[in-house]
Amino acid sequence: MRQTYLILARIIAVLVVIQAMTMVFAVAGFFTWIDDGGSADSSTLKEGSFPSFTGDVGFMVHGISGGMIIPLAALLLLIFSFFAKVPRGVLLGVVVVVSTAVQYFAGFMAHDLPAIGLVHGLNAFVLFGAAIAAAQAAKNAGVAQAAPAPTA
Known about the structure:
single chain
């Protein structure tokens, strides 16, 4: 159970990094497309009519990962935290789930309130840090259990 908790925590941390990478890839590609003569307005950005450019897959990866994969992994981490016997494991699992929920809702709300994008960006660091802390706690719990008992 602890190994599964550790792996899930590491997966979440890696997925947060992938989120940042794919978003920058998509935005950079989009602006390069504009610099190369592409033109964008609200009709350009509607479902089904999005332009094709280098990096456009980044928007899709960001959406699928942030909208489905990370929330599922966070929920699984919390479930496993009850059985993994990791010190502060449940607390860290709750922090991961709550920060994932904040990411999810801030990401969607930023479409209507762009300033919420600041929360979305900052909270990504919270989520990453919580996932790393959870992984480290699981790793340290395994080391503590594997250590031989001191002799008198």
